[in-house]
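Long-time lurker. I teach an intro course on protein structure, and each term I like to show students one example going from raw sequence to a predicted 3D structure in token notation. This year I'd like something fresh instead of my usual example. Would anyone be willing to generate the tokens for the chain below so I can use it in lecture? Attribution to the forum is fine with me.
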Amino acid sequence: QVQLVESGGGLVQAGNSLRLSCVASERSFSRFAMGWFRQTPGNEREFVAAIDWSGGTTYYAGSVKGRFIISRDNAMTTLYLQMNSLKPEDSAVYYCAQAVSSAATTRYTGYTSWGQGTQVTVSS
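-- Reply from a regular --
Happy to contribute to a lecture. Here you go:
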């Protein structure tokens, strides 16, 4: 099973930016859609962004649309999430996930492999 390792989280002031990365251990990465989810204590994991295998199709949660950008580098087996204009409500543990198919999906059940998560904290 693919291993996914996120990095790039940290503490940042509101209005600033962070870029998260997720490196996959398998070159099969390029065949699957990928996604970012986030979770805060006591809440369910929520969809943030998704990208298809080629990078040609992307989906965003309404709360991040226009501020976050998901992208991928298949040659480097790496997924990215550029987060701009961060808000305190963006604070969460962010997880990357590999989908079951090449098509991007917003559904939690559409993903089978998950990283360990990286903490993002946005101060006001």
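Some talking points for your students: The first strand starts at residue 4 and ends at 7. The two ends are 39 Å apart (CA to CA).
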